[in-house]
Amino acid sequence: xxxxxxxxxRIFAFVRKEIxxxxxxxxxxxxxxxxPFLILLLFGIGYRDTPRTMRTLFVVPDDSPMxxxxxxxxxxxxxxxxxxxxISDPAEADRRLRNGEVDLVVVVPPDxxxxxxNNEQAIFNLYHYEIDPYERAYIEILGRNYTEEINRLxxxxxxxxxxxxxxxxxxxxxxxxxxxxTARIALEAGNEEEARAASQQLTEDVGVLAVAAGSGLALxxxxxxxxxxxTIQARMEAxxxxxxxxxxxxxxxxxxxxxxxxxxxxxxxxxxLSEYEELDSQVxxxxxxxxxxxxxxxxxxxxxxxxxxxxxxxxxxFAVTLAGLSIVRERQDGPIELFRASxxxxxxxLVGKFISYLILTLALGAVLxxxxxxxxxxxxxxxxxxxxxVVFVLLCASLSLGFFVSLSAKxxxxxxxxxxxxxxxxxxxxxxxxxxxxxxxxxxxxxxxxPVTYGINLLQSVxxxxxxxxxxxxxxxxxxxxxxxxxxxxxxxxxxxxx
Amino acid sequence: MTPTRDKPATRRDEAIRTxxxxxxxxxxxxxxxxxxTIPRGSIFGFIGPxxxxxxxxxxxxxxxxxxxxxVVEVLGRSPDQFTTDDxxxxxxxxxLFVMYPDLTIWENLNFAASLYGMSPRRxxxxxxxxxxxxLDGHEHKLARNISGxxxxxxxxxxxxxxDPELIFLDEPTAGxxxxxxxxxxxxFKQLQSEGRTMFITTQYVGEAxxxxxxxxxxxxxxxxxxxxxxxxxxxxxxxVITVKPARMLDFPELRDLRGQSxxxxxxxxxxxxxxxxxxxxxxxxxxxxVFSWMDEHDIGVESAGEFNPPFDDVFVMLLEQERAHExxxx
Lengths: 499, 330
Known about the structure:
heterodimer, A: abc type-2 transporter like fold, 3 domains, 18 helices, B: alpha/beta
């Protein structure tokens, strides 16, 4: 019984000593808690989820038919394009781009109509001076959006033009319908001569209409096939054939019936054209849109998304640094010599330090979490118990890693360097800002050798999705903590053993 | 090497026993075949020049280092097999301060007490220790803010706080003022009287006089272990008597004196103040004979007495003798 009591007294000696030593450094405690919170706060305040506006210079030859078009649309291409003017000299544009006076130079194809007539796409060349791959990708996407916008404007014009043509056709249809009505009435009255004259007129009118519909509505057909441009054309052709039979030697009653059918068909075509005219040109040219919806229970901002990762990263860093410095300092400053001569064991030393750092980092995690959730308003959709469990296991694993580092280092500067290398690796490989799937498979071994990778996954799922922690990830993290603790215990035992 | 007299009767009376104990660091021989036996309840002083292997020997005895060869037993057990209880019976004060600068004096002492599993009701014991080392009233000072001497006293208190049976002190009085040093030695004597065994290295050779046994070390070798008085006799070749005659002896008188049986190996020298220094077997028997010889030759004696040179001189003499001995063998 006495021995068990003494066992815990020795462990508690380290718990108390480590806590006192750390709390005796108020600046350290202050920077440990307030530092990370201020970083998160600044990030939240400073982050702007708005697309970059590119200062854009257009290059159009003086005699290009595109000049008026560019002049008209240069300022209507959205917030991302801020027109800095139109010039004709590509060399001057290149100079201004290299001098950083503009971000983007758009070289407009000189005669796109001619190019299209040659069955080729008219190409807009976008020049930039970016070295950041993400900025390059942004410009490529911007270029695609830009040409889509140009194409959309072309289609919009075509649609509007088509509507004008349709109105003109409708007037002609109205005339033709009247002629068909005259022919039908004449036939019904037995007035063959008038009927023949009207039929002749109708045949001519319908012939003209078919041609007009073929050319005028061709634009409409190019814009979209769903509104029935081809149907109109087919119907007009059918009307043309029916009109031709009115001039035949068929029975009067049959011809009167045909005239009525022509009249009815022209009314239907007129109705179709009216329907077409009423359609919004924007809908006409882009009948399909996209709407992305998240099934998460809340809408997340970029800060919200990064907070669990930052908490995991900071907690790992604190734990690794604290534990990383602890044993190396005992070795460097000499207390280990006292431990070797005293009854204290490697296990008691390690457990005592482990408990003290766990208490400190848990308190730190609690304060940090309270600040980000209640002050920054970061959502916490999951169960607080699950959250605490994940943080606890993450800290255990990080402390074990820290002790492993401490036992590998010869000096405290080596331990600090190792902690910084782990921090750097964590930023790049943990999924902190780069999703893990972007890393080559074998390199992901590094990711899973870091507690923070598990921590980020688990904290994001608990905080932002409200899920129960993934049992495999949690189990793996517990195993990680256990294995590294056992290795550290064995190594400290060797350090404290006789030399 | 065993103290020449008062040899422990049994193994149970031995606190420390080594036989041909050696320690090498790579090719360097730090400790070379040290053999000694230290009885329980004694104060063993370990003296020798800096770097001679005193601290290494102490670490071997504590089980901090593993011996390259030889046998070592401390409290009847090899340090290899020390149990927790064995270690609780041992106190250790390292040469340098190895505690925590960011803890107060009290917290450091409390930590040391906890390492030895002392009960939480140790408040009085801690106070007593602080009083002993004259650090009471400074409990709340951070160790980083106190002087080197105070750090030394704190280390001593930490080594003694759990009331160990065998105490290893590596230069406990270094940096301590003479008054406090004397107080320390009084306390060591008291601990000895309570049955504690103490193994003390010291850079103050004069402190050897406080010890029951003194080991002299040089170049990793234990040159000799003996009682302080015996070491002095070894250095001087016997007891030394200083006699100040009323007049200067003439040559025949001097030759006659050298030939007397109480004078060892004709060793009579004349000091600069014309006093005589005689090496004798035993002061107690030789001194009356000297007076008698002076009287026979009608020579008055102004003063006479035993000559006790400082241990620093004794130490130097012993080392020089050893060096001369080695050279003659070489």
